[in-house]
Amino acid sequence: MKKTKTLFFFSYLLTIATLSAQDNWEVLFNGKDVKNFQQLNGDAKYDIKNNELIGTSKMGTPNSFMATKKEYGDFILEFDVWVENGLNSGVQFRSLSKPEYMDGRVHGYQCEIETSSRKWAGGVYDEARNGWLYPLSRNPKGQEAFVSGQWNHYRIEAIGSQIRTWVNDIQCANLVDNTTSKGFIAFQVHSIHDESLEGKTVRWKNIKIKTTDLEKSRKAVDSDVPEISYLHHNLTEDEMRKGWRLLWDGQTTSGWRGAKLDRFPENGWAMKDGILTVLSSGGQESRNGGDIVTVNSFGDFELSVDFKITEGANSGIKYFVDSELNKGEGSAIGLEFQVLDDEKHPDAKKGKNGNRTVGSLYDLIRAENNGSSRGKNFKGVGKWNNARILVKGGHVEHWLNQIKVVEFDRFSQLFAALVEKSKYEKWDNFGRLPEGLILLQDHGDEVSFKNIKIREY
């Protein structure tokens, strides 16, 4: 038996030597020890057996990470993983642990490993920082890549701001983000709160990394996998090729005016560093600078807006707005993607069944995540969240942080019935205009917007 194990180990070493000589790959885990790693945060157990790194779940400990002592910037990482059903895990990359940040908590990009019904394995999560950056809610093909109960092969390409992942040679994530350019790689054993999960394992093997000749080693991008970019006030080449343009230039009032003015408001709005902020006036709707609208009208389009609310704030992103409908007090009239602090603003409790909460079609349809029991994926007050509005003919969708939360047909009888029972029933043809303005609302609370971009169909 001992002789067999020795032969197996020498065979493994030969494989390592061969691998290292091919295409400049470097073995990240030698199958023998973790002397080039350090364990961070939690104290879940890590073992080595049959050249596998094995993490075992443990009650009462936070997330545990077996992290490389070396930091990596641009790289291609490949590994195989087997995780027992019910466990959540992941591999950190470009990650950090600093005493001044949450007492050393590991934070940074994570490629998801999971067995849950939502099927986001291969997506990119920003651990202890920005939450989900690339859930697989917009990539149904990628959702089917991971197979429970077997070894799954992962590939992560982190080159510049482009972060792409594959599971079993199926592309899962196509992310553009430049928050962190360098950090360690770490293998996670997630914390558990269910005693039935204690003692379950996640296993990794064949872990290798490549840091040179990366451009010619890239895999082709699947055209069905949407690119999601978090670059500040910049469009990617892919976005420009697909017809995206910035709806606000980040510096001037060009293309915008007051909803009830022929010019941009002289006060109530501030512009700085590519961020557009409506200033607080104590919650008085449209009493300071007032709403602002686009100069141009839009019909079929896809709109993306990043927004950040202050505590207790209320605002909205409206579309198919006719600024001539309401010349009196209050906001201009149009369909509205609600922007709200659901916890602190009283409007969240008004309306019907939550149809005034963040992401909702205001006063008409409640925002909800039908694909998960974990809520709407709102990142919180004081953090940047993304609103995405898609309109094609009568079909309309609201997406909050890449999760679809509202879907409806604005020409349907059901929509007409909802309008008849809402505050909008007095407005003829509400929500059914062939085209209209896009509006950012002044509801009297401080709310910021950035990366306002659109493409028309």
Rg, Å, rounded: 25 Å
Number of helices: 4
Shape by Cα distribution: elongated
Percent in helix: under 10%
Roughly what fraction of the amino acids lie in strands? 35-45%
The N- and C-terminal alpha carbons lie at a distance of 67 Å
| Category by helix and strand content | mainly beta
As an assembly, this protein is: single chain
Mean pLDDT: 93
Biggest sheet details: 9 strands, mixed
The count of β-strands is 29
Q: Which regions have little confidence, pLDDT < 50, spanning 5+ residues?
A: 2-10
Structure description:
The chain has about 450 residues and is mostly beta strands. It contains four helices and 29 strands. Strand 25 (about 385-390) and strand 26 (about 395-400) form a beta hairpin. About 10% of the residues lie in helices and about 40% in strands. Strands 1, 3, 4, 6, 11, 12, 13, 15 and 16 form a nine-stranded mixed beta sheet that branches. Strands 17, 19, 20, 22, 25, 26, 27 and 29 form an eight-stranded antiparallel beta sheet that branches.
Give the structure's gist in a few sentences.
By secondary structure, this protein is mainly β.
What descriptors fit this protein?
mainly beta, 9-stranded mixed beta sheet, 8-stranded antiparallel beta sheet, 4 helices, 8% helix, 38% strand, disordered N terminus
